[in-house]
Amino acid sequence: MTEAIRKLSLNDVAVRIGGWQEAYKLGKGPNRRAESLRLAAEVGARPDEVNSSWDDAELERVVNGFSIATPRKWSEVVVPKGATKLDALTYVPGLVGDVVRWTVACAPRPNRMMALGSALGVVGTVIGRHIMTPREGATHLFIAILLKSGWGKDVPLQCGAKLVELALGPSALASGQFASAPGLEEALVLEPRMISFADELGDELMVIKNQGGNPYVGKLTGLLKKLYNRWNTIITASTISRGKSKTILWPAFTIVGAATPDMFYRSFAQSDLESGFLNRWLVLPYAAYRRAPLQKTTASADRPPAELVQALKGLPQQPTALHRPADGSPPERQQVLWGAGAEDVYFAFSRRMDELQDGNQRRFELAMRTIENVDRLATIVAVGRGSASVDIEDIEWGIRLAELSLDTLASDISRYITEYVEFPQLCSKVWEEVWSRETSKPPHWISDRNLERRFARSLKYGNELARVKDQLQREQRLRPCKGRRGDSGPVTDGWEALRDDDDD
In the CATH hierarchy, which fold is given to the domain comprising 93-335? Predict the structure, then answer.
């Protein structure tokens, strides 16, 4: 690289690369190849990207701005120096990493975590209905990309949709609008392996919430819960208009949706938590992100690299729209096995999640599907990197991402979801919340300020919490007490939960 090129800004280099690519595509004559290689070297292309012995097809691959060069092994992954904790999670080996890299190149305001969500949805859908996880799970997910308006949530959805369209065909793309349960069932009858890229996920879920009186729309929540489940069989209802019932064998329905946090959580109610609908969602962590500055894009969402599309087609999968072989037997499934030590890591994490029921009841309820999501995440990445087993690195990566998602969900619920409850239930919830605080001094203590904050969105009239405190004191299940959080910190007024010997 010449001294002049070293002084160029990153934007200048990007412009130069773009000019080189266009010059190659439009140029003619014997000097076209030599000029392209010279410019590539000047702008700092890797040595393996500048090889005069390449044939035209190989050079065309470099000119198109993409090559499948992501490592296949975890040991080969290099996380750039200075990457944030969240961004470090997005550097993964195999096809998931390839899709992330291309999506970031397409985005004017890139966000690697959003790109990761789209990549997981794409790869998980391609191998859906065929790949079985080590725990006999599936590979489809409900993924929520939550960011403020104007942060570039649309590009990852566009990139993912184009890849699926080219790799599986348009029939694998479900509408981003959830009109009715019967309509979605009919689509799945024709193509049981589908993915929905929902640009305004919060608005679509709000339609379901606001039309609970409409039986066709209201049943969507129940259908979506069934569709999340692994290797399920759904039998549609017989009606005069739809005719006889139909069987949907092993539907693999993925959702990758984008929304603002407020709109996403506004579409849920407390009953969605209790029924297990909300905890099925893998909410990608987002709180630490800032809006990315504009960058010059080096790829287009409308033109995925042919090499990337071909690699997706080469993943182990069921033929499109195949329900059963001609003899009526179930389609073939391929189970990924545990790598050495991976199963132990998985079950250790499972036990840690189970222990939450003895402490933080709210987090325990939210964590019900975390273990299953870890199984799915690890398998998607493992298959995407060409591995026949889910290894320790796959599981450990899946645990980190799923736990960050759980942290995000737990934090957001107290901030966004309003849960008005009747007085007796509020008494129980307040006592359970205080009792779950085990790291305070004394144990089972919460400051008055934190108690007020925790239940601020549960108060319909504003005075219910004072009545709850009085009631629990009369029952001798709560008493005022000074304490502090952990082993240090200021001593403040608060409340201690008491437990009688007669309590269950």
Answer: Rossmann fold (3.40.50)
